[in-house]
Amino acid sequence: xxxxxxxxxxxxxxxxxxxxxxxxxxxxxxxxxxxxxxxxxxxxxxxxxxxxxxxxxxxxxxxxxxxxxxxxxxxxxxxxxxxxxxxxxxxxxxxxxxxxxxxxxxxxxxxxxxxxxxxxxxxxxxxxxxxxxxxxxxxxxxxxxxxxxxxxxxxxxxxxxxxxxxxxxxxxxxxxxxxxxxxxxxxxxxxxxxxxxxxxxxxxxxxxxxxxxxxxxxxxxxxxxxxxxxxxxxxxxxxxxxxxxxxxxxxxxxxxxxxxxxxxxxxxxxxxxxxxxxxxxxxxxxxxxxxxxxxxxxxxxxxxxxxxxxxxxxxxxxxxxxxxxxxxxxxxxxxxxxxxxxxxxxxxxxxxxxxxxxxxxxxxxxxxxxxxxxxxxxxxxxxxxxxxxxxxxxxxxxxxxxxxxxxxxxxxxxxxxxxxxxxxxxxxxxxxxxxxxxxxxxxxxxxxxxxxxxxxxxxxxxxxxxxxxxxxxxxxxxxxxxxxxxxxxxxxxxxxxxxxxxxxxxxxxxxxxxxxxxxxxxxxxxxxxxxxxxxxxxxxxxxxxxxxxxxxxxxxxxxxxxxxxxxxxxxxxxxxx
Length: 577
Description:
- This protein is mainly α.
- The protein has 29 helices and no strands.
- Helix 5 packs antiparallel against helix 6.
- The longest helix has 46 residues.
- The N terminus is likely disordered.
């Protein structure tokens, strides 16, 4: 029997016993008139599970009731409840899935079965993810993640993180999603997933984050890995997704011929193979094929692929974002062909569907289609102006000239304001550095043990070791990461992350970036030779893997570019020489 902590017993058992009693009582208050026949009372749990699976969904209530009324609540029953939670999840019957998963959690908590508890929380997160309840999904995933780390279950940890990064991407927390994705890449070799379908699925999920962050080289790298594994195990779904991802990347890189090569490969799989859940792969393939042809001014081909998706759908399926975008793409194709009546028809359809979507959408943010919308909507605006431009040519020309003049004037004003602002920020930076160098920084290591459930001495030890690592300038190493630092301070990644969040009041990435930028500000000010380095060399010297990453964090911290800071330091030095 696996040992379970008092925290799970006191917090989760009592809470779930109450919630479970409330939910089950409420769910079946409307079924009190349904009496279970005597013949069902003697059925085994296996028989009841089988009956639920083979019976029409609208007629399973009586079997579910008998199964949930089972008196012998042991680990075996919890396994069957989890099986039912998974079954209803696959059937998209999410309320029923949650009902059985909640009962699984109650029993697993009482029986101290941590691994079973982790599975139930993880699947519960998937259910909330499907329903668009992002915060509830996040809470469930973090519970599952805590248990996976406690039980050293690296497989469950990565499965849970796969769901977690989807939620974080939805909530636009892309930096956090990216951090978790990088961690998954580093640890996948420790799992049983190596060279399996799950291995490819993890690459697929991580690539969604890289695509949202526009890290196209990484998308191509892991798509190639997914293709290699998928071919070796004949995993058509993984191969399909990897081809689509590569097609999307090459489309964004304006390499339309290469994008079409991969999208045609994905189309072939969809035509020749029996792929489950093929809706979105089909729509993505058709959308980006149509977009490639549109960009190449092959408007008839673009219209063919756009109509291929739209014409085969029921009205109820047309309120999904990629389908709505296809309507807008069609409008632009007809605009380009100067078939304005058709263009306005499809634009009106787009407006109608998009209005409905905006009223009913959940929190999901599909960055792929958001990016396309801005460009296509701007082009359809051109269409509407073209319809009336003959009668307003002179007015438009005059307006454009006035606008250009105003724009040029605005650019000049903004430029000088920006220069003045940068100069002010530079002076403030120098004053701040001088103050910091004039006195020692006092670090407040006050302990709030109630927040972390860790004893005072352990927290103080970790904070002391963190300060030592700061003094040793460990943060300048390019391989400085959360797990590595956790080993250095003899803790684990979860506790260290919480400690940094509580006592440094920032995330791990913010903590490291702040240390690096503060270091480079001082060194550039005091080291003339260091100022002569290229931006790329400076970035490498302080632990960044690219000059772009260094520049981004420097500007975010100071408000100015490193090149501007160095240039003005040289001016300042020449004034005093």
